[in-house]
Specification:
Oligomer: single chain
CATH superfamily: Aldolase class I
Strand order of the largest sheet: 1-2-3-4-5-6
CATH class: Alpha Beta
Order of helices and strands: EHEHEEHEHE
CATH topology: TIM Barrel
Length: about 140
């Protein structure tokens, strides 16, 4: 579950009751990420932590060893149809070098013309949360 909400704390229990196995929240949306991470774990879910394009990746670093997945937004959240922001990929590269076992995802503007730009810094598995699937036949190995 990728929660793009202003008060992610209030949705932990309802999402757990609904059967969510992972709860991803935006770091910018909470004043106490540590308490929220603890609450998510106590409710039996994995923890994902998202950062918006304007947020420094280093802001996520103190929490990286407490989460299961980092999500780098490659568009501004909340507005469909945006172009992929390639300048977010250094954040992915930095996370991969600093936290090699951390699952990393990107979200936004990923499609046949940008998927290769996403794959490069990962060097292993590649995960997407919002992949544009039309004209997917353009993607080649």
């Amino acid at each position: 579950m990728h929660m793009m909400v202003s008060k992610p704390e209030q949705w932990v229990k309802p999402m757990a009751v609904a059967g969510a196995n992972q709860y991803t929240f935006h770091l910018e949306a909470t004043e106490n990420p540590g308490a929220l991470i603890k609450d998510i774990r106590e409710n039996g879910m994995k923890v994902g932590l998202a950062i918006k394009p304007g947020t420094s990746v280093e802001y996520l670093a103190p929490w990286a060893n407490q989460i299961d997945m980092a999500l780098v937004m490659t568009v501004e959240p909340g507005f469909g149809g945006q172009k992929f922001m390639e300048d977010m990929m250094p954040k992915v590269h930095w996370l991969r070098t600093q936290f090699p076992s951390l699952d990393i995802e990107v979200d936004g503007g990923v499609g046949p013309d940008t998927v290769h730009k996403c794959a490069e810094p990962f060097g292993r598995s590649l995960s997407f949360t919002a992949l544009e699937v039309r004209n997917f036949s353009k993607i080649r190995n």
